[in-house]
Amino acid sequence: MLYGVWYEGNLCNMHLLKLSNEVKRGVEDAGMVGFRFNTVGVSDAISMGTRGMSFSWQSRDLIADSIETIMGVQWYDGNISIPGCDKNV
């Protein structure tokens, strides 16, 4: 399972779709199956000084919950996480 936080509106995350394509290709070249899924990725730099900052901490829980949900429900064998910045790790 490949998890990423690709999002065009965030400089930290906008390159992650391309990176996840490379990782998926490597997983498949190794004879495994790589399924990708995405979750939210916020940037404090964008929301600094606005009401948006109140969502920074929430986003960390949402990211963790979404990974745990997908991995738990589907019984996948492994997870490769591709974070973009400190809020996504």
TrEMBL record:
<comment type="similarity">
    <text>Belongs to the IlvD/Edd family.</text>
</comment>
<keyword id="KW-0456">Lyase</keyword>
<dbReference type="InterPro" id="IPR037237">
    <property type="entry name" value="IlvD/EDD_N"/>
</dbReference>
<dbReference type="GO" id="GO:0004160">
    <property type="term" value="F:dihydroxy-acid dehydratase activity"/>
</dbReference>
<dbReference type="GO" id="GO:0009570">
    <property type="term" value="C:chloroplast stroma"/>
</dbReference>
<protein>
    <recommendedName>
        <fullName>Dihydroxy-acid/6-phosphogluconate dehydratase N-terminal domain-containing protein</fullName>
    </recommendedName>
</protein>
<dbReference type="InterPro" id="IPR050165">
    <property type="entry name" value="DHAD_IlvD/Edd"/>
</dbReference>
<dbReference type="Pfam" id="PF00920">
    <property type="entry name" value="ILVD_EDD_N"/>
</dbReference>
<dbReference type="GO" id="GO:0009082">
    <property type="term" value="P:branched-chain amino acid biosynthetic process"/>
</dbReference>
<feature type="domain" description="Dihydroxy-acid/6-phosphogluconate dehydratase N-terminal">
    <location>
        <begin position="5"/>
        <end position="89"/>
    </location>
</feature>
<dbReference type="InterPro" id="IPR000581">
    <property type="entry name" value="ILV_EDD_N"/>
</dbReference>
